[in-house]
Amino acid sequence: MPLRVIVWNEFRHERESAAIAAVYPEGIHRAIADGLALVQPQGQQRQALEIGTATLDEPEHGLSEQRLADCDVLLWWGHRAHDAVSDAVVERVQRRVLAGMGLIVLHSGHYSKIFRRLMGTHCSLKWRVADERERLWVVERSHPIAAGLGEYFELPQEEMYGERFDIPRPDATVFISWFEGGEVFRSGCCWERGHGRVFYFRPGHESYPTYRDANVQLVLANAVQWAAPTVALGDAAPMRAPLERIGDKPQADAAAG
Ligand code: ZN
User: Which end of the chain is more exposed for a tag (fewer CB within 10 A), N or C?
Assistant: First the structure.
């Protein structure tokens, strides 16, 4: 069974700005999807991918109940229209993550409703768009998301994000970015929420061709494999009869509560 992946994109910048459309004429979601189709993940887990895309202005943002039920890993790029994402869809995505679906939140998705809901914090940070160099240090070389990477890699121009990044302490911090202007940032962070895995990956400002970078494409290819569900378990809180007889009490009493 291939891993079923959906790349979700707000898809507003590319349609509203000629400068951004020049960088991503086909939309950021298509560039990300093309990178996933092109790059072989490194490391042990290598499931084939079935890649689809969804965008904000599609009915239900392209994330109907059925579409999400059939999704193993969802990637999320949003920026200027976070508030336009319906709470019902956010709720739906959260339920799927808790049940086991993987979620990869990209760049300005740090302020998306779904990421802030799953983190439970503001997810705020410092920022600056000044065409500066970003060096991503791989601080967990043994982590599956870092497979095939060197000690660091660089992006010639990116937006700066700086600490403090208001997130709960990650289960793993795979990358720390340094920027030409001096700031640092936890740029690749992993969490578990319920049965699902969540990865936040920092680079990806819309005015730079970041998603065509080979190292970025490798990180995303690895991250999709890492985030693949291991179970699919919906929520339940059943009253359970005991498996063993409890003392001398009748079964019905013992099972109460
Ligand atoms: Zn940005």
Answer: C
